[in-house]
Structure formats: C-alpha cells, structure tokens
Amino acid sequence: MRELRYNPLTGQWIIVSSVRAQRRWRPEGYCPFCPGAEETGYGWDVLDLPNRFAALSRDAEPVRGDELQRKAQAYGYCGVVVETPRHEVKDLDELPLESVTKVVDLWRSITRREMGDRRVVYLLIFRNKGEEIGVSLTHPHGQYYALPYLPLKPRLMADNMRRYYRRRGRCLVCDLVEGELREGVRVVYRNPSFAVIMPFFASWPFEVHIYPLRHVQYLTDLSDEEARLLADALRGGLASLNALFDRQMPYTLAVFQAPLRGSWPHFHMHVEVYPALRDRDKLKYAAGFESATWDFTYDGVPEENASRLREACKRAMQKTQGLLGSCG
Ligand code: ZN
Ligand code: ZN
After folding, report:
1. Residue 158 C-alpha to ligand 1 middle, in angstroms?
2. What is the Å distance from ligand 2's center to 219 Cα?
3. What is the Å distance from ligand 1's center to 246 Cα?
4. pTM reported for the whole predicted model
5. In a 3-state reduction of DSSP, which class is residue 129?
C-alpha cells in the first residue's frame, strides 16, 4: 500500500507506505553501494540509483478519499546518490574538489530531469550522516524525493520570500546574506560565489546555511564555475563541522530550491545543515517542546558558537587539501 494522506489540522501531506524490500540475506560487510555490487557495477564516479524502499512511485495506484479522509496518489520518485566509489570516505570534505563537483553536477541533472515531469511539484535533495541519527549504510550517499506536492517548510519559505519581495521589492535572502557579510560575526566560510553562515535564527547549536551570493532559484541556474564553488563551500562548511569537536559530525543536510511548478522569481535557493551534536559527546534532541510545536529552544549563544565554528574552520583549512575560500 502506498498513498498520501492529508492532515487537515496542519495542512500537511503524510507519505504512507508499506513498501518494504524483501529482507534478503547479505554476507557480513556487504555494501550495496560499493563498485561491483548488484546495482552498481564498475567504472563510475557518482551514481543515481532508485531507492529500494521507495515510498513514492511513478506507477503508484490512483486513490480516492473524501473531505475528512483526503488521499492522493503517492506519485513521485525516491532516489539515492552514491557520491564516490570509495567506501571508507567519512564525509564529502575528505573527497577532492573535483569529486564533490561531480556530486553537485549530478544534483543539477536530477533537478533538470524532474523539471521535465509535470506531476513533480517539489524536489528535495538531502543527506543524512552518522550512526547517531540512524544511518546504517556508511558508504557516502545522499537521497532525493521528487514529490507531487509542496511540503510545508519550503512552502513557508516561498510565501515569506514572496511577501518580503512585495513589500520591499528586494529578495529576503539577498538582504539577509548582505547583512551577515557586513556584520561578519556569524560567517564561517566563504568563497567568491557562496557563504557558509550560521543564521541569526539558528535552531540547532551549530546549524549552518550555504547561500549563493547570486540570486538563483535552482541548481540548474548555476554556471559550471558556480557549481564548483558550491562543491567548495560544501567542503569548507562540512570540514569546519568535522573539525569542531575533532570527530565526525552527524547531520542532516537539505537543498532548498524553488518549487518546480509555477513562477518563483523571489525564491533564493540555499542549503541548510542541521548538525546533531551540541558538544563532543552530547546529542541535541528535537524532544518534547520541539516535536510538539516544531519550534526550537537554542541552548547557548549563536554568535559564540559561530565563532567556535570559525576557529574550527581555521583548523580545517590546515587539514583539508584544496579549499578555495577563506574562514569568516
Ligand atoms: Zn561501500
Ligand atoms: Zn536573492
């Protein structure tokens, strides 16, 4: 069974799926993403694979509901991006710039492909890292969902960016980034086209956003050189997070582009990273208050944490080969 169910209290869709790939026996230590595995073969740098546990499908059955039990077809696609053939790599900052650029280029081509499917309304590219947050496959990989509806968070972003644009005739994010670069206290890393910033309104203790300095809606708007500089900003930002406690930082990363349908000239694409640690051995949980209200309490002072991240960035600069930008 696969369907979307609507929550009329919050205006959200829930993806309901009982799809479970058959639990096949696998030899101890077998990795489905390594070269030579069943789905991967040989001779690749990055791979775009279908998710075996896909909750969405372009072949999903049509469904029928009623006003209080509203349903929709679980149309869409769930994919996996295998980011390197090298199993032992812990995070993207350990890969050379050219390899991370290939990951960004694959994100761009997935975006272009999903733009061509009229029924896909939103594409979310994301990446989970760390056993602490339940990632069992350690081979570097990300995921994406091509969705038939616009999820709540990007919908709110799009609404707020549009409202600001109507009031000021300017882009909300362009103005935010300009202010951050002027003030400087929350800037972690920057290169000629991107800035890694802890937002003034951070929810997670070491949350960072990666903003293009140019006003762009989609990854497909980036030039080849900008795609390379996004890869560099990803390396710089993630290297800083991994240097912070001198251990691998577990996190969720999400790429927020404009919706794929309609016209969103006021939308400013960006990447958000939600690191799970608040200290070397302490996880930040989205617990009672957070899971009840979706609001956050921030334990600490964002500006102090941003300055710690900037110090970590300087340590990362010495360890990480080939970073093109600078800290702060
Ligand atoms: Zn592997
Ligand atoms: Zn903008």
Report:
1. 37
2. 14
3. 24
4. 0.96
5. strand
